[in-house]
Write a structure and sequence with these properties.
The protein is α+β, with helices and mostly antiparallel strands. Helices cover about 15% and strands about 30% of the residues. Bound molecules: FE2/S2 (inorganic) cluster.
């Protein structure tokens, strides 16, 4: 079981290992539009646990450039452990 923590709301959500984070992020208030990694609406900042997210996708690289602390929530799966985000 993985944990996704939202700094903005202090909410922590349990997710199965390997689950997409989009739905939990949407419920926490992250805005979504295309859900395909194209529009950039769902940008989140990962403040802890970047290694626990799925590999940086080509769609994310195209929109965000080099990997730093930002990810597209519609493209990420949580692999396990704990990930802390803000938006
Ligand atoms: S909703 Fe468009 S990039 Fe994620």
């Amino acid at each position: 079981m993985a944990k996704l923590f939202f700094e903005d709301t202090d909410d922590e959500i349990d997710l199965p290992d390997g689950a997409p984070i989009a739905e939990a992020c949407e419920e926490a208030g992250v805005p979504f539009a295309c859900t395909e990694g194209v529009c950039g609406t769902c940008v989140i900042e990962v403040t802890e646990g970047m290694d626990n997210l799925s590999e940086f996708s080509q769609a994310e690289a195209d929109f965000l450039g080099d990997l730093n602390c930002e990810r597209l929530a519609c493209q990420c799966k949580i692999q396990g452990g704990r990930v802390k985000v803000k938006f």
